[in-house]
Amino acid sequence: MKDPKVTELVKQFDKDLKVLNKTWAALQKHNVFVRASIKGSATYDALKYLEVEEITQRVEYLKDKAE
User: What 3-state DSSP class applies to 66?
Assistant: First the structure.
């Protein structure tokens, strides 16, 4: 039997992830690169978390008009 509390947490996690991906996609459209990784050991009992390691934006000041 599924735990109702876990079911709600899974739904919330999925919802939060969709929002995060939408924001991340918007950043990419502005030439922003985000490097993130999942931290924590590779065991089921260890807590995992996301960590942003770098956020950079590519800016061009001069672009060849032929491109």
Answer: coil
